[in-house]
Amino acid sequence: MNKDLFARYDVAAPRYTSYPTVPYWSDEAFAPETWLQHVKNAFLTDPQISLYIHLPFCERLCTYCGCNKHITKNHALEHPYIDAVLKEWRMYRSTLPAKPVLRELHLGGGTPTFFDPENLRYLLENILKDVEVPENHDFGFEAHPWSTTEAHLKTLYELGFRRISIGVQDFDEDLMKLVNRSQTVASVERCTGQARATGYESVNFDLIFGLPQQTPAHIRTDAQYVAKLRPDRIAFYSYAHVPWLKRSQCAYSEADLPTGAAKRQLYETGRRWFDSIGYEEIGMDHFALTHDPLFQALRKETLHRNFMGYTPYKTSLMIGLGASSIGDSWDAYAQNEKTVADYQRVVNEGRLPIFRGHRLDAEDRRIRRHILNLMTRFSTTWAPEEAGDEILTAALARLEPLVADGLVQLKPFRVEVTDEGRNFLRNICMAFDTHYWRKQPQGKLFSQAV
Length: 450
Ligand SMILES: C[S@@+](CC[C@H](N)C(=O)[O-])C[C@H]1O[C@@H](n2cnc3c(N)ncnc32)[C@H](O)[C@@H]1O
Prior knowledge:
By secondary structure, this protein is α/β, with parallel strands linked by helices. It has helices at about 5-10, 30-45, 80-95, 115-130, 150-160, 175-180, 185-200, 215-230, 260-275, 295-300, 340-350, 360-375, 390-405, 425-430, 435-440; strands spanning about 50-55, 55-60, 70, 100-110, 140-145, 165-170, 200-210, 235-240, 280-285, 285-290, 305, 310, 315-320, 325-330, 330-335, 355-360, 380, 410, 415. It has two domains: about 1-20 and about 360-450, Arc Repressor Mutant, subunit A; about 25-360, pyruvate-formate lyase- activating enzyme, CATH 3.80.30.20.
């Protein structure tokens, strides 16, 4: 491992779950009618849709958490929230001219398993009665091992869920206590075992590297549990330290955070171990066994990345329901009000709770193609007639130092990420990010690339 490289490229950089990245969206006052028109147009090109439902409540604050959540022990909040989500769904459903085909459904959080299984059944049955569910549907949910009961697993299985993503973060119980997370190894083992016994076909573990006081020894132990429990997929996230956005991250000392080469060593330790037990790196910070659809999609070059992360296929339309959710119609993005109170207020007034959005112009679409290619194939290509134009010339110039450092190779009409370069995918994508270079951020926007 070249330590100099990690020092040099450890700059603030987006994670590129969209291009343009959210801080560079242009349209603060994005009218809901405009968004609905984009939704309708996308649906007319392809009736297969993806649905993301944000379920924001958590009983306890994990201090490292960078997600949009609402901490409460008050379960009476479940009903009004579900009613708002269903109201929002009906606003979308009534504008679609035919029954959508629900290819992909993801429950994210917060903690979806905060909700009572019967309340989840009520929510989902009311959505599913309005859609067609194809044979090859892909329904998954984020599960906190502590709150996921057998009843959750069975109820969601009956509703068509076959994929579960378990938030593990790290198997070390003391490390978890340090970030205020109540979780034991036994709870992860129980949740994984019950999911398999119920019939779930795909189990994902979320792990994080770079947590306070985390060492390579922790990662080795994590890999041993991975070898034992054999999740089909692993999301091995780089800890995003954004205390200016998430005050709870001030609860631990920054001196305890592994940074630069020390942080990357944690990733390298994980990567080596996962490789030795049969996992393939399928994209940035993601691994899968070779039977997994994500790995198959990487092979077939159909892998896609959106706000939900990596997925084996792409739909033209992704509708996001719930507080802070983001929708994607391929030519536009829209985001919902972020707090539960604002979200419910606007929905209950009978309006779509969009508070910002972005329409992609031709340049955005070209750059998005390159960034998506790099994120999902570790390479990108262009037609001979594109060569020499302003955007590509500028991107290739920005890549020059990365070429000199052996992170990318330039070939005729093609950029290829090298093995070493995979560690710096965010930096490589940034070379193409015209919005970023036109207006570099004044304050802090993004977490560190390493
Ligand atoms: C919405 S959260 C998890 C769902 C569930 N509440 C749980 O805690 O198990 C989705 C995932 O985001 C990841 N995550 C949260 N905060 C993060 C951060 N600051 N840096 C990197 N990954 C983070 C975690 O791996 C987490 O499992």
